[in-house]
Amino acid sequence: MSETPAEMARLMKVAEAIVAELERQGVAEAVANLGFDPMRMAKEVIRAADRDVVPFPGPPAVTGKPTGNPAEPGGAADLDW
User: Are 40 and 12 in contact (CB under 8 A)?
Assistant: First the structure.
């Protein structure tokens, strides 16, 4: 997949913004040590901005959590307060 100069410039601008925000929050070095790839995230951000579906991996789903609805199995009524 060959990117045009405009697409590459957009990608770099978004990646730089991501890195700047991580630096502002003081976590840039920590996430870099964990193997974070700002270019991959920048590509997904651009896809989302262009209204494409974004299957960016997130944290694993948590199952078995109380729902908070007492009427549902596993709801607040099942909690041992």
Answer: no
Mean pLDDT of 33-56: 85
- For residue 28, tell me if it sits in a domain: yes
Q: State mean pLDDT over 35-46.
A: 92
By the 8 A CB rule, do 74 and 67 touch?
yes
Tell me if 48 sits within 8 A of 54, measured CB to CB: yes
Measure CA of the first residue to CA of the last residue in the chain; give whole Å: 56
Q: How far apart are CA 22 and CA 3, in angstroms?
A: 26
Domain encompassing residue 17: 5-49
How far apart are alpha carbons 77 and 81 in whole angstroms? 9
Q: What is the DSSP letter of 7?
A: H
